[in-house]
Amino acid sequence: MSHLTHIAAPDGVAPGNGYSHVVLGEGRFVAISGQIALDADGEVVGPGDPAAQARQVFANLGRCLAAAGADWADVAKLTFFVTDVAAVREARDAHIDTARPPASTAVQVAALFRPELLLEVEALAIVRDTRDARETGEAADRP
Questions:
Q1: Strand, helix or coil at 30?
Q2: pLDDT at 132 over 70
Q3: Cα dist from 17 to 81, 94, 103, whole Å
Q4: Which among 9, 27, 71, 103 is least buried, having the fewest CB atoms inside 10 angstroms?
Q5: C-alpha torsion sign, points 70, 75, 76, 79
């Protein structure tokens, strides 16, 4: 069972398309800075190709989550800054649980800080604190 609670549509709020309006949980807070389509050498991946850039951005987000001891199941919120929203959903859906999607915000922008970049995505995660799990007798997901 997940340590996060997803509320797709609180009373009186229209359901979102592919996101939860509210995600809450207890644990360590992890903030991942906006990730862009750069590889490990700092080279742009997929110039002019939104789908290739989205795949690289989500790969980078996954690496950042792992560095914090987190994974995609811990993501409570994603914020998208995009010049073209078309390719983001497919890349996102390859990583998240679409039945329990994180809260999300998408902002279409005229440009990012480098003209060849087409999107930037930041993540907020909540990682179950194993100390809390030991104290309550729950099984811990991670060390």
A1: strand
A2: no
A3: 18, 16, 11
A4: 9
A5: positive
